[in-house]
Amino acid sequence: MTADSTAAPPAGGRTAALLKVTVAVVAWGASFIATKVALREAAPLTVVWTRFLLGLPVLATAVLLRREWGLVPKRDLGWFALFGFIGITFHQWLQSNGLVTAQASTTAWIVATTPVFIALLSYFVLRERLRAVGLLGIGLAAAGVLLVVTHGDLASLARGRFGEPGDVLVLLSAPNWAVFSIISRRMLGAHPAGRMMLYVMVFGWAFTTPAFLAGPGVRDLAGLSPAGWTSIAFLGVVCSGVAYVFWYDALKALPAPQVGAFLYLEPLVAAAVAWAVLGEPVGWTSLLGGGVILLGVWLVSRPSAPAPTRPR
User: Fold this and answer.
1) pLDDT per residue over 11-66, tens digit each?
2) How far apart are CA 178 and CA 98, in angstroms?
3) Residue 104 has what pLDDT?
4) Which DSSP string do the residues of 84-152 spell out, in sequence order?
5) Cα–Cα distance between 175 and 72 in angstroms, integer?
6) What is the Cα–Cα distance from 238 to 26, expressed in whole angstroms?
7) 302 contacts 130 by C-beta, under 8 angstroms
8) For residues 250 and 18, is the Cβ–Cβ distance under 8 A?
């Protein structure tokens, strides 16, 4: 989801925009680690439901202050409900359950391939052009993912093993977010990005509520330690609230490709924080595979201007 800048911002505004997009990307990179920490004490659904319960007021306040709030036509509510299910309910279910067994750093590298799936869907569904260099990029990104999830043991693929069980769920989340990005694109022409994202989050959070109430959610919350609450609060207030606001602020002040380029930092941040907080090793296969993934994504994304948001 994007919003292109129509005029160059003043120097001070440009600096502020660069700082905001940096904060957003660092927060999203650290979100994988915060999720891992929270999952030590609570079920995935509990983490997701509470995260968005805390994040929604932040996003709603920003929408109101920017005068982006407004009722939407009934015909659009059905679309927003669909977006909420795909982009919040199902997407977060995939990633949170995947992170139970997947490493945080591996997850970040896999999620970084989302632009590749957006390009593939745009080609097959929207009939958009895919150049030869894009095909090369897709191949490189795929090779990088295999190298990362197998930790260099590519022979394990022949034995039917694709990394950890959670790696499969995380990998499915990338094309799922690509589907969300493609089908929600047309709504951005009719609604401000903040308003649309608020409706999407409300629906997505609402869809998780019945399962939360029927499951161990209340008991999980009662037993959370300060570390668990801090992790979930960071996910909700910072990652699902402040980071989205900062991201859209940056998109209004800077060219979309420039803002989108910052997303290349996200898996690097995740790997560094995972090493520092979780003790996840940073081996040569992770760095090499991650580098190949980023090169592939860069080749795929280079011809186009849109800067996709992150599902954080």
Assistant:
1) 567 889 999 999 999 999 999 999 999 999 999 999 999 999 999 999 999 999 98
2) 18
3) 97
4) HIIIIIIHHHHHHHHTTTS-HHHHHHHHTTHHHHHHHHHHHTS-----HHHHHHHHHHHHHHHHHHTTT
5) 28
6) 10
7) no
8) yes
In 3-state terms the chain splits into helix, strand, coil percentages (rounded to 5) of 75, 0, 25
Q: How far is CA 186 from CA 14, 80, 182, 193, 252, in A?
A: 28, 12, 8, 11, 18
- Interacting residues of 232 by C-beta distance below 8 A, sequence separation 6+: 34, 38, 42, 47, 50, 51, 54, 224
| Tokens found for residue 297 | 């994504």
What amino acid occupies position 159? R
Look up residue 66 and give its amino acid.
R
CA distance 293 to 138: 9
Residue pair 296/139 in contact by the 8 Å Cβ criterion: yes
Long-range contacts of residues 39-42, Cβ cutoff 8 Å, at least 24 apart: 39/96, 39/99, 39/100, 40/228, 41/220, 41/223, 41/224, 41/225, 41/227, 41/228, 42/217, 42/220, 42/221, 42/223, 42/224, 42/228, 42/232
User: At which residue do the structure tokens 């409706």 appear?
Assistant: 199
Residues present in the chain in total: 312
The structural domains of the chain, with segments of one domain joined by +, span 11-301
From residue 75, give the alpha-carbon distance in Å to each of 79, 181, 197, 273, 303.
7, 19, 17, 43, 34
Q: What is the pLDDT of residues 222-244, one digit of tens each?
A: 999 999 999 999 999 999 999 98
Using one digit for the tens of pLDDT, what is the confidence trace for 125-180? 888 888 899 999 999 999 999 999 988 887 777 777 788 899 999 999 999 999 99
Return the ∠ at Cα 109 (arms to 148 and 273), rounded to 5°.
105
The percent of residues above 70 in pLDDT, for the chain, comes to 93
- The CA distance from 248 to 267, in Å, is 20
pLDDT at 305: 43
Q: What is the largest CA-CA distance in the chain?
A: 57
